[in-house]
Amino acid sequence: MIHSLFAIFIFPGFLFLCVISLAAEFIDRKVYARLQNRVGPPWFQPLADMIKLFGKEDIMPEEANPLMFKGLPIFALAAVATAFLYIPLWSPESLFSFDCDIIVVLYLLTLPTIAFFLAGWYSTSLYAMIGAIRSLTQLFAYEVPLFLGVLAPAIIANTWSLSGLIAFYRIHPVLAACNMLGFFVSIIALQGKLEKVPFDIPEAETEIVAGSFTEYSGRLLAMFRMAIAMELVVGASLFSAVFLPFGFGLPLAGAIAAYIVKIVFIILLSCLIRTLFARMRIDQMVEFCWKYLAPIALTQILINLLIKGMVL
Amino acid sequence: MSLASKVLTWARMKSPWIIHFNTGACNACDIEIVAALTPTYDVERFGVQLKGSPRHADVLVCSGPVTKQIADRVVRIYEQMAEPKFVVAVGTCACSGGVFDGCYNIRGGTNTVIPVSAYIPGCPASPEAIIDGVVKLLHSLEVAEAAATK
């Protein structure tokens, strides 16, 4: 009992996730700055931002629904932190693994987007509402390619549990190389989930102030920012378990090092995408996701089905 | 000063998010403010970020004299910001009304409608001056906090 509470809240649960997501945000911002030929923020910048926001006044619009307005940031944060518990980080088994946990993780990662939508909706501000509708429109575009991409490796492995997936790829490491198309699709779809360039349409600060978060200030905004920072780490951990299932058999120190190398690699890829592209329009985004990303993800599934039928 | 308030003051100094508002400037100061935010000057070194929503911002950067038409709006933007908040007046016009002082449609400097914490003169104020002004404002904040809790 005490042991699982420690695992959930301290290590490798909530507190540990907070620390690595602040570190991930720093890496993301620093590399972004270096790619733009800037010096970039100091190492404590995400921490300072978070502490400052926690010390600020909380303003709630008069028309807003207090329960929803205050509850949704906590809801988003809790959903992401829960998803983290079901992902195998360095040991081949996650903390509370069970059959079909990959589906649960994917749906828990969808919840923050729903929370962003509801937060914008209940803010009763025009800008927030436009941002909310955009984030929901975007959800329908990137979610299907993301699910197809992440579930494709599970088709070869013939299991829907993350630990089963890792066990399978430890026996057949070469087959993990077949999933690179799905990895490519998923990492682009992750940008949409994180609402980052080129899919930062819901937050587009030059058009609609700050999207869903327009009315949020202080600690509630800090929670939303934390949820997004955590989502990056949780997404990177999920991809590292699904697409790069290496290093799980190593001794503990080696396995942790392999985990860190893998998530830093995925964060760097996401940062590179953010630097290279400009913001799309919402119609271009939906068109891109359905015309290109979804077919590529389907191709990945076709390849995996063929491999499963012929090789295995 | 207790440890918690020390940490909070440190965090506030290290992470000033700004919002830029033109209260009737000729656009020269605005160009200089935008220039100060470009990679050449890289204000993210000091944790400065430009925010779209007044709810997220800590520092309101005003440029230009306050016209009668914009006066209500600038007060409204100021009231939408969460405490603690600061105002920086950029350019001679924002400091005092400048050459427009006394015009039939002008209220005067920014301080005629909202409290101003730092004045950055210049026509237009250069990006270096703007960054220096914001850094000085943050430093004075720390000094004031230390004096208040003594």
List the main descriptive attributes of the protein structure presented here:
A: 312 residues, 0% strand, globular, B: 150 residues, Rossmann fold, five-stranded parallel beta sheet, two-stranded antiparallel ribbon
Task: Please give a quick description of this structure.
By secondary structure, chain A is mostly helical. Chain A has helices at residues 2-9, 14-35, 45-54, 66-85, 101-122, 126-157, 162-171, 180-193, 205-208, 218-242, 252-276, 282-310.
Query: How does CATH name the architecture of chain B?
Result: 3-Layer(aba) Sandwich
What overall form of chain B do the CA principal axes indicate? globular
Number of strands of chain B: 7
The helix tally of chain B amounts to 5
Helix content of chain A: over 70%
The main pleated sheet of chain A reads as: none
The SS-based structural class of chain A is mainly alpha
User: Which word captures the global form of chain A?
Assistant: globular
What portion of residues of chain B is helical?
A: 25-40%
Rg over C-alpha atoms of chain B, rounded to the nearest angstrom: 15 Å
What can you see in these coordinates?
- The complex is a heterodimer of chains A (312) and B (150).
- Chain A has one domain.
- In chain A, 71% of the residues lie in helices and 0% in strands.
- Chain A has 12 helices and no strands.
- Chain A is globular.
- Chain B is of the alpha/beta class and 150 residues long.
- Chain B has one domain (20-140): 3-Layer(aba) Sandwich (Rossmann fold).
- Chain B has 5 helices and 7 strands.
- In chain B, the strands form 2 sheets. Chain B has a 5-stranded parallel sheet with strand order 2-1-3-5-7.
- In chain B, helix 1 (3-14) runs antiparallel to helix 5 and helix 2 crosses helix 5.
- Chain B is globular, with a radius of gyration of 15 Å.
- The model of chain B has no long low-confidence stretch (mean pLDDT 86).
- The A-B interface holds A 29, 33, 36-42, 44-45, 47-52, 55-59, 127, 205-206, 209-210, 213-218, 221 and B 7-8, 10-12, 14-15, 39, 42, 44-45, 47, 50-53, 55-56, 58, 80, 82-84.
